[in-house]
TrEMBL record:
Domain of life according to the entry: Bacteria
Function: Could be a nuclease involved in processing of the 5'-end of pre-16S rRNA.
EC number: 3.1.-.-
Chief place of localization: cytoplasm
Annotated keywords: Cytoplasm, Hydrolase, Nuclease, Ribosome biogenesis
Family affiliation: Belongs to the YqgF HJR family.
Gene source species: Brevundimonas denitrificans
Entry protein name: Putative pre-16S rRNA nuclease
Alphabetized NCBIfam families for the sequence: RNAse_H_YqgF
Entries under PANTHER family matching the protein: POLYNUCLEOTIDYL TRANSFERASE, RIBONUCLEASE H-LIKE SUPERFAMILY PROTEIN
Domain YqgF/RNase H-like stretches: 31-131
SUPFAM superfamilies to which the protein is assigned, alphabetical: Ribonuclease H-like
Locations listed in the record: Cytoplasm
């Protein structure tokens, strides 16, 4: 596929991932954001309220093929009138990016090819283990019940971290 210079520039702008501050500045006030926890088999989805103060678990998307997964995310965005995405970025403990982080970046890049959606990444190190610990210790959920809620709860954890970081 060959693009002229203007088309390449337009495409680069469409796939740019924003900082959290730029995401906040580029999305209309009074609109919620969605948070995504991109797992190997599922996508946990959370939503903020319209004031972007509180994140709540929303949905779990069972991954099939990328196009279907992307359309499921976009359908949830449209249904909630969400203006942006916060995607968990699973960094290694030393802050470097491994294959899972690269996969998350590829998801964002490919999603942008379907629709230019403002999105930002949020460090999600230890989010799933923190959520697992909470679900076991505080809610005493068994393994089967945890499996049904951990990914969307992790998405809420990721989104809440981003919202709190913006307020700090």
């Amino acid at each position: 596929m060959h693009f002229d210079r203007a088309a390449r520039q337009s495409y680069r702008q469409a796939v740019t991932v924003l900082s959290l501050e730029d995401l906040a500045a580029s999305t209309p006030p009074g609109t919620p954001w969605l948070g995504l926890d991109l797992g190997e088999k599922t996508i946990g989805v959370a939503a903020s309220d319209v004031t972007r103060m509180i994140a709540s678990p929303l949905s779990l998307i069972r991954k099939t093929k990328f196009t279907d997964d992307a359309h499921a995310v976009l359908k949830l965005m449209d249904g909630r009138k969400a203006s942006g995405l916060v995607i968990g970025l699973p960094l290694n403990m030393d802050g470097s990016e491994g294959p899972r982080a690269q996969s998350c970046r590829a998801f964002a890049r490919n999603l942008q090819r379907i629709r230019a959606v403002p999105c930002a990444f949020q460090d999600e190190r230890l989010s799933t283990s923190a959520v697992e610990r909470f679900l076991i210790e505080e809610l005493d959920l068994n393994r089967k019940r945890r499996a049904n809620v951990v990914d969307r709860t992790a998405a809420a954890w990721i989104l809440q971290g981003a919202l709190d970081r913006l307020r700090a």
